[in-house]
Amino acid sequence: MKNGTESFVSSFHWPFAGSFGFNTDILATNPINLSVVLGVLIFFGKGVLSDLLDNRKLRILNTIRNSEELQGGAIERLEKARARLRKVEMEADQFRVNGYSEIEREKWNLINSTSKTLEQLENYKNETIHFEQQRAINQVRQRVFQQALQGALGTLNSCLNKELHLRTISANIGMFGALKEITD
């Protein structure tokens, strides 16, 4: 038994509309169609895509600068914490007899809280960078898809005239009717 494509091609006669015809050689048509679509995408989309990427790059760089400023603030706090630590250590020498263990515990708490703050800031910076990169990638994908779809629709609209469109619809209706009779 023939498959649906073979019966569709062989059971209908496709009259030519001027110089228009169907090329059923899939190896000859697909590379041409792909090269046309890719050429249109590259020609019309490279400016928009480069602008979009430049804007995204600037946003990411601004985010990195902001993160570095936050890191600079954390480093200042770390320096203040280190100065405080030095002060605590001097006091520890004075009060060694009365409470060396308490001072030591405060020192470690201070170091731990400062290192946790630095880790949190570093994680925030990395998450922000990752988030901005993902958002940029998603926007680029969406923009490329929209441009490809617009290009394909434009190509289809420019290639199909009213008469050809009506013949295609009639042929498809006839094919579905024939398939329905076969399945019944």
UniProtKB/TrEMBL annotation:
GO terms for molecular function: proton-transporting ATP synthase activity, rotational mechanism. The keyword Transport applies. Keywords: ATP synthesis, CF(0), Chloroplast, Hydrogen ion transport, Ion transport, Membrane, Plastid, Thylakoid, Transmembrane, Transmembrane helix, Transport. The chain crosses the membrane at residues 32-49. Its main location: membrane. It is found in: Membrane; Plastid, Chloroplast thylakoid membrane. One of its GO terms (cellular component) is proton-transporting ATP synthase complex. InterPro entries: ATP_synth_b/b'su_bac/chlpt. It holds the Pfam family ATP-synt_B. CDD domains: ATP-synt_Fo_b. The keyword rRNA processing does not apply. It is a single-pass membrane protein. PANTHER family: ATP SYNTHASE SUBUNIT B, CHLOROPLASTIC. Belongs to the ATPase B chain family. Component of the F(0) channel, it forms part of the peripheral stalk, linking F(1) to F(0). F-type ATPases have 2 components, F(1) - the catalytic core - and F(0) - the membrane proton channel. F(1) has five subunits: alpha(3), beta(3), gamma(1), delta(1), epsilon(1). F(0) has four main subunits: a(1), b(1), b'(1) and c(10-14). The alpha and beta chains form an alternating ring which encloses part of the gamma chain. F(1) is attached to F(0) by a central stalk formed by the gamma and epsilon chains, while a peripheral stalk is formed by the delta, b and b' chains. In plastids the F-type ATPase is also known as CF(1)CF(0). HAMAP family: ATP_synth_b_bprime. This is ATP synthase subunit b, chloroplastic.
